[in-house]
Specification:
two-stranded antiparallel sheet; binds flavin-adenine dinucleotide; 61% helix; mainly alpha
Length: 189
């Protein structure tokens, strides 16, 4: 195989991304995974295990943004008192924490069920990835808001977290596709 050029990305810059080009590539027959003809099923089943890991990545990003927001709003003073004294700020922090906690529990349940090898994991693993990444996007965006102008600068970590959160809504299947997976299992009964 050949490695493509390095992608220039919005976020997750600590993780380099390149395409892999398979050129006249022959794989020896003894390297086959599973029985012949079952490859697509095997490939799709791996997603039941990898989607919760993207959910976990999203929860980590969101928790980091929440922690940074709590610390900053207690420290930053405007009009002689910490901005955390404002109920509007307190309610934002409460909503952020509530969403992070709900996402964490959904990811734990999906991971535990996948780890036990339970059947019909499509809904729960797609829901965990989709919900946690939507939470990460909303919580990191609110974190930038709570930092005010400082949040928009590279002097603070929350703008990076917002950029890093975006990819969790896209890779391992976009969140539109996660919703396709979930609704398909719901309608199948
Ligand atoms: C940084 C990075 C790392 C990556 N790492 C890997 C990796 O390690 N391995 C790997 O295999 N891939 C990897 N990918 C690829 C990634 O998984 C895909 O980009 C992602 O699944 C979306 O596919 P696409 O880009 O072809 O989007 P498209 O399929 O072109 O989708 C474009 C838009 O159309 C929407 N859409 C498409 N089909 C439907 C539909 N049926 N219903 C509703 N909406 C639809 C999508 O939701 C999206 O909004 C990586 C991508 C990035 C950016």
């Amino acid at each position: 195989f050949e490695v493509g050029s390095k992608e220039r990305k919005l976020g997750i810059k600590g993780s380099p991304t390149r395409e892999i080009h398979l050129v006249d590539c022959r794989i020896p027959g003894d390297r086959i995974i599973g029985a012949p003809g079952t490859g697509l099923r095997t490939a799709l089943r791996t997603l039941d295990h990898t989607r919760p890991t993207i959910g976990a990545q999203a929860v980590g990003i969101a928790q980091g943004a929440l922690d940074a927001s709590i610390a900053y709003t207690k420290e930053r003073k405007q009009f002689g008192r910490p901005i955390a004294d404002n109920q509007a700020v307190q309610f934002m922090l409460a909503d952020m924490a509530m969403k992070v906690e709900a996402a964490r529990h959904l990811v734990y349940v999906a991971a535990a069920r996948a780890e036990r090898g339970e059947p019909n994991l499509g809904f729960i693993t797609a829901a965990a990835k989709c919900y946690a990444s939507d939470v990460a996007m909303s919580v990191t965006t609110d974190a930038v808001q709570l930092f005010g102008g400082a949040g928009y600068t590279r002097d603070f970590p929350v703008e990076r977290m917002m950029r890093d959160a975006k990819i969790t809504q896209i890779y391992e299947g976009t969140n539109q596709i996660q919703r396709v997976v979930m609704s398909r299992q719901l309608l199948k009964g």
